[in-house]
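Minutes, project huddle
Topic: does the predicted pose make sense with zinc ion bound?
PN asked that the exact inputs be recorded in the minutes so nobody has to dig through chat later. Recorded below.
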Amino acid sequence: MSSRRRSPITCPVCGGQLRHRQIRPLGAVTADLGWELHAGECPQHGWFQAEVISRPPREIFPVSQPGGIVRAFTVGGKKQYCFPTVYSRQDPLETPDPYDPAFWAVDWERLPSGTVAF
Ligand SMILES: [Zn+2]
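Predicted holo structure (tokens), as shared on screen:
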């Protein structure tokens, strides 16, 4: 896994491209598993980030800034603190390409509100 690649992260709310996209290597969890922080800013919805440890992330978090605190994001009138990804439904024994954008898509059915409103 190379940190020179471009992060597949997009805005979990509108699906739009994020500006200031970045990948911060956070070191190694073990000798084999690199830990990366992916972040980017939606002009409308603010900063989002996800942690990648050799697999696609299970959640994307709304944050105050890259590496900052998680903020609440209101979806369908309810506060959310994370957006589950499609990967969170996958068999954990499978290890797809962590940069495959298909796994980064938000799994809206897993949000308690079940609906998108913005
Ligand atoms: Zn957005």
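Observations noted during the meeting:
- The radius of gyration is 14 Å.
- Strands lie at 19-28, 34-42, 46-53, 59-63, 73-75, 78-80, 83-84.
No decisions taken; revisit at the next huddle.
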